[in-house]
Amino acid sequence: xxxxxxxxxxxxxxxxxxxxxxxxxxxxxxxxxxxxxxxxxxxxxxxxxxxxxxxxxxxxxxxxxxxxxxxxxxxxxxxxxxxxxxxxxxxxxxxxxxxxxxxxxxxxxxxxxxxxxxxxxxxxxxxxxxxxxxxxxxxxxxxxxxxxxxxxxxxxxxxxxxxxxxxxxxxxxxxxxxxxxxxxxxxxxxxxxxxxxxxxxxxxxxxxxxxxxxxxxxxxxxxxxxxxxxxxxxxxxxxx
Length: 240
Prior knowledge:
7 helices, globular
């Protein structure tokens, strides 16, 4: 039986490409044993506003903790949730489907209580997936034994999740050792983020790289039709 595994660090209200990967996976592993990276997507994302894109950032306590794993990062305070929701409400109030999804998204913010960043991200990933009509199988990297270098750890997680195919973002082509996946009988495929259709979006010009909330508020129940699930097989002789 074919079984597709995706492994990514948890992101805060990520863009549609992230949910596209969730939708096409049988097992989606949140790689939260990975090192936390500052000024990255772990604790922030962008929304569209009348004045251009705007960052929404979860404050975190990482001072002096440069080698901290994502799973060990604590959120600094709780005021951010109300502030983020108010920014979202203000920016998207006139979007076509905002009123339809206003309450479910507001409730996600009001019910977000965990002091741990990874749990906050998982909370939104689970809740937004449901609004997109996607039923994710989310697991954590801590469930698997991790040894060796970066590729060895990925192979170990794929095998532990029963994967026969591993889908990776194109940036990993620079470092992923595909031959080790081949040896484990796991086909490597590269996600293709091109060809996403545009949709009527407030505040032109169109911007693909914002939170998937933008897609939800503009397209509504048809949002998952924008998840293309496009991959291309590796050119390094992976199994069929």
